[in-house]
From TrEMBL:
The keyword S-adenosyl-L-methionine does not apply. The chain crosses the membrane at residues 113-138, 150-173. This is Protein ARV. Belongs to the ARV1 family. Keywords: Endoplasmic reticulum, Lipid metabolism, Lipid transport, Membrane, Transmembrane, Transmembrane helix, Transport. It comes from Daphnia sinensis. Mediator of sterol homeostasis involved in sterol uptake, trafficking and distribution into membranes. InterPro entries: Arv1. GO terms for cellular component: cortical endoplasmic reticulum; endoplasmic reticulum membrane; Golgi apparatus. The keyword DNA damage does not apply. It comes from the Eukaryota. Signal peptide: none annotated.
Length: 226
């Protein structure tokens, strides 16, 4: 039985192979049986181009990363970097607020950096769990559903979480709340793309899933901070 693991980046149809090898130096990209376009043009592209297309929130770039490439190692490193960076930015912001209210510098706040990492981790885990659970339920409800995969959903969530890196420039240029708002908007749009690629193409179900996960995260945040 043939494996159909690869996904056409244009229409999402499953295909057997991305390219056909004729000799050691000759191969040709395969076209999709459903839409007649090249299944995955990104196979020949440099990583920089793919990265820019991800920043431009193109569905095709999301399909390439989630279905047709092996980027789990790089993604896990980027995820760890994002967690540490976003925790540090949030910690610096909260530390500045406390120092404005008090004449004393609270050196024990250094310990609170590790607590902040724990809080960010719990928030991210809760958001991801709610998103994937609602995504799984949505996949059962939708007629035009994709083949649901927890692994692809998790990788999509990891990609979306990396949008928290948007807050890092606020360390230099201030305006933390503006950068945080931008990162949250980008995160929600990216989650919508993950849902669209991994679950189904219903924007209604996508909006319910993304906003549901975001709402749960907003409810739990005050509890974590006290
Ligand atoms: Zn296609």
């Amino acid at each position: 039985m043939k494996k159909t693991n690869y996904s056409c980046i244009e229409c999402g149809a499953k295909n057997v192979a991305l390219f056909q090898v004729f000799s050691e130096n000759a191969l040709t990209l395969q076209t999709c049986a459903n839409c007649s376009k090249v299944i995955d043009k990104y196979v020949e592209y440099d990583f920089t181009v793919i990265f820019i297309d991800i920043l431009l929130l193109k569905f095709s770039a999301y399909r390439h990363v989630l279905y047709n490439s092996n980027t789990k190692t790089q993604l896990s490193r980027l995820l760890a970097l994002t967690l540490l960076s976003s925790s540090y930015v949030e910690w610096v912001y909260q530390k500045a607020q406390i120092q404005q209210r008090s004449e004393f510098i609270l050196y024990e706040l250094e310990w609170s950096f590790y607590i902040m990492i724990g809080q960010e981790l719990i928030k991210a885990a809760l958001f991801s769990f709610t998103f994937m659970l609602l995504g799984f339920i949505s996949s059962k409800m939708s007629v035009y559903r994709e083949t649901f995969s927890w692994t692809h959903m998790f990788c999509g969530m990891a990609m979306s979480y990396c949008w928290h890196l948007v807050t890092v420039p606020s360390l230099v240029w201030k305006h933390y709340s503006t950068y945080r708002l931008l990162s949250q908007i980008a995160l929600l749009i990216s989650c919508n793309h993950t849902f669209h690629v991994c679950v189904c193409r219903s924007y209604v179900l996508s909006a319910i899933t993304v906003l549901g996960a975001w709402g749960v995260q907003q409810i739990i945040t005050p509890w974590l901070q006290h």
